[in-house]
């Protein structure tokens, strides 16, 4: 009887611990649990390391001026809704129209977070919410972002947006919150799922965008960067960008 009672007490204590843990988990800010579940579901061998550095190559000659398929796909994929307010609408990616004053050549290119090796946004963030993963992807932790917008001022590429409005219809893989800053994530939900691509690349009908591992010499992006010249935006800042451009 004593042994039976001891086993019952142990079972009760175990149940209470599990219930308390579950209750605590449910009280965490939405998005944290989803992230932990997704992380736990991944194979340990797929852990993020600096052996990989994700990057993108954009060919201005192939990018059709006026086409915004990449912008539409990005915003739809990540639940970013445009409200018709250009001054305050969030933009994870935008098309920029350029004109060469000497030659008169005009063209448009997509601009997003450049995923710098030395990101100024991370340097100025007072809470550590702006951070860079080991694989080079620069992100914002919405749970500790205080909306100070120092990162927006520090970014040379105007790649970050502040969320002014209440957010509805969020995508599970891209939690957003009023009063926080956000930017392109290189579709980490796709990267971490092993897809090795982004929504903008998938949507481009002109093969103007190439995404891949810059550290893999056999990847398409590495082969093309080795074969053809490319440029970084504001290369003089020496930030070693993850996004490169050709024919600009």
What can you see in these coordinates?
This protein has 248 residues and is of the alpha+beta class. The chain folds into two domains: 2-30; 49-246, Alpha-Beta Plaits (2-Layer Sandwich), CATH 3.30.70.20. It is 29% helix and 16% strand. It is built from eight helices and nine strands. It has helices at residues 2-26, 32-41, 69-78, 120-124, 150-154, 188-192, 199-203, 220-227; strands at 54-59, 93-99, 106-112, 130-132, 138-140, 161-162, 181-182, 209-213, 243-246. The strands form four sheets. A three-stranded mixed beta sheet has the order 8-1-9, with helices on one face. The chain has a two-stranded antiparallel sheet with strand order 2-3. The chain has a two-stranded antiparallel sheet with strand order 4-5. Mean pLDDT is 85; it is low at 1-9 and 11-45.
Relevant terms:
alpha+beta; Alpha-Beta Plaits; 2 domains; three-stranded mixed sheet; 8 helices; globular
Find the count of extended strands (DSSP E, 2+ residues): 9
Secondary structure: helix percent: 25-40%
Largest sheet: 3 strands, mixed
Question: DSSP strand (E) fraction?
Answer: 15-25%
Computed over alpha carbons, the radius of gyration is 22 Å
Global shape: globular
Tally of individual domains:
2
Termini separation comes to 82 Å
């Amino acid at each position: 009887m004593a042994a039976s009672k001891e086993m019952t007490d142990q079972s009760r204590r175990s149940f209470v611990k599990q219930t308390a843990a579950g209750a605590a988990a449910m009280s965490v800010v939405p998005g944290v649990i989803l992230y932990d579940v997704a992380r736990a579901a991944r194979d340990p061998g797929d852990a993020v390391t600096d052996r990989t550095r994700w990057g993108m190559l954009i060919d201005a000659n192939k990018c059709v001026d006026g086409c915004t398929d990449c912008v539409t796909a990005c915003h739809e994929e990540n639940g970013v809704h445009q409200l018709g307010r250009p001054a305050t609408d969030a933009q994870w990616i935008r098309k920029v129209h350029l004109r060469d004053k000497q030659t008169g050549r005009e063209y448009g290119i997509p601009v997003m977070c450049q995923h710098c090796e030395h990101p100024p946004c991370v340097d100025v963030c007072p809470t550590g919410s702006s951070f860079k993963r080991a694989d080079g992807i620069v992100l914002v932790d919405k749970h500790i972002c205080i909306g100070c917008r120092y990162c927006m001022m520090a970014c040379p590429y105007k790649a970050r947006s502040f969320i002014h409005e209440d957010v509805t219809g969020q995508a599970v893989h891209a939690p957003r919150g009023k009063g926080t800053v956000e930017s392109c994530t290189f579709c980490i939900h796709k990267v971490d799922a092993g897809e090795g691509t982004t929504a903008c690349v998938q949507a481009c009908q002109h093969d103007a965008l190439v995404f891949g591992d810059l550290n893999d010499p056999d990847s398409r992006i590495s082969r093309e960067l080795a074969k053809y010249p490319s440029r970084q935006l504001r290369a003089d800042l020496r930030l070693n960008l993850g996004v490169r451009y050709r024919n600009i």
